[in-house]
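Revision sheet: structure tokens.
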Amino acid sequence: MPKPADDKNDKSVSNFHLKIVSGVIFWYNISMSIRLFPEAIERRRKRYKECDWLSDWQVHSAHIAAGAISSLACKIETGPLYVPMPTGSGKTTGAIWGIVDFVKSYPDQRLCFLSPYKEAVDQIYAALVDYLGNDIIGMYHSDAFADKDKELRKQVVVLTHQFVEHNQGRLDDRDIFVIDEAIYATGEATLKLHHFGEALSWATRNGVLADEFIKLHELVNDLNKELHESDKKYIAAPHQKDLRWANTIAHELQLSNHSQTIDDNKVLVAVQRFCEALLSGLVFLSKGSIDSQRYDPVYSAAVLGIPRIDKTVILSATGGMVYDIAGPFKQDMGSREYWSPPNYQNLKLVQLSGPELTGHYRTWTSSAKKDTVQNYVDWLLSSIPESNVYITMPKQVLEGCLRNYFNLASRGEIQYPITTNKHGKQINISHHARSVGSNNFKDCDAVIYLWDNYLPQAVAIQRFHTLADEEITVEALEQANGGHLVGNYKRIREAQYIDNMMQQIGRGRIRNIDEAALADKMTAYVLTDNADRFVRLAAQYTDCTRDSLPYKNNEVVTPVGRMARILDYLQRHKSEKDIPASELEEALGFQLRRYNSQLSNNWDIMMLGYEYVAGGRGRGNSATFIRIRKN
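Predicted:
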């Protein structure tokens, strides 16, 4: 990892305060000066044409991201590493530079770059070919006109996450993996009981591992019976000593050899993933969507799916919140010690109130509810002053309620992204689950985020255990069977909500970050039914201003959780001085000492620039929020 020529003589070092929280090290920019590597910036500018449209801060950030790959390759650090820089910092550009450096330094080693989206694969592949040639760089996805076997023989290959799921074992020869977000989604399988019946029917009909599939079918039926007869919402697959049949299905069955007999390849791929997860104790069964008349069990299984997790670098746009909660992941040394985050003083974060709509958004199918959604969106677009807008919402709301309003096809798949005009404004439309990180909306001066990206509780359970590589047991599921998620399950679920909001907000103009690490001017309008979540979101943008925009007579909701109320107070009463805990206790009406463990080493409080120090005995030892960041 490159370092300044002489840290002791670098006066800018005194402008930073180092703080360690749960193994994560933060650099807080106390003055407005930015610590850069001038020589490295000059060297990168001479070598790479992308630098023509990057600020020095972005070139520096990209250089840091490139260094993470180098430090892992030369064993300065061990993985898995994550590089937490927001959208617009230059992480992907830095990854490209790191791969170029890797190829020249390690011609005998092989690397795989994984991205969630086909468009990104095409862009990254083109950039790498420009520097290294297509004899070294390969790529493949389902729409690519390429020979998969030929592409995989190349030293570097660029793929989508989906490739891992459908091509088991094909990447075992890779020495390094660079992954753009969503690592925890690469090995998930969600199945219903009838899927296992379909798999068994295929196996017996074609004489392919019939005995093994019979044992699998017996296992899932036993699980189904146990759950149906219990009062629990979740049960774990029992640990079995003899799982040779599961190992055979997971690792020896080559589906590509039977492609002509398979009607639905996705089901058999998911069944293989289920068997692989079963071997690691990462399978559980939930009652799914239940009411008094319905029992709809869901089998959940997940594994990370990356052959060399210890040789993996993850690019994260949201500060590593998800990765910090569970698992062996750690922040790379470069971003940890030589990088300063952007300043968001030009961001206005507006909390919206919405119309009165009952039920989950997937049930908003009546004409009355569709009209309510349409009237609300029309009111919002007519009310805001910005002229170039990016709007995102759950796919079910967009396609179920707003097709006519946005003049979309009445049926069938919609081609995203969409651009239209309303009230004299350019409106760019997508949904929460699509194309995170796209450059298509970088000139939008407003981002509108409507309704939370709903995640079933089972998703949080699955992703926590996958990241932590921790077996799902009956004891572990006690935290989920109480009715509400608690502990790490709750933490990772909330982190994923915030993660999705930040991913989408980061697609607008704030992704344009200047020489002084100052993000561009933008307004983000957020509608969430969870005010605590909005407060947490605002904490991630330390320097932003907050506002509200009520709809008709529906006032915006206020935080109710005590931790959220503490966070809200700190945001609204930011000071250059320390804040005594007694001040918050008087204003909020409850004692803080009961929450000492939650307040100490708290990610959100640290993001606001404070450290909570619990009080001790004696005068002058009162609990205090110590200011560690000066704006």
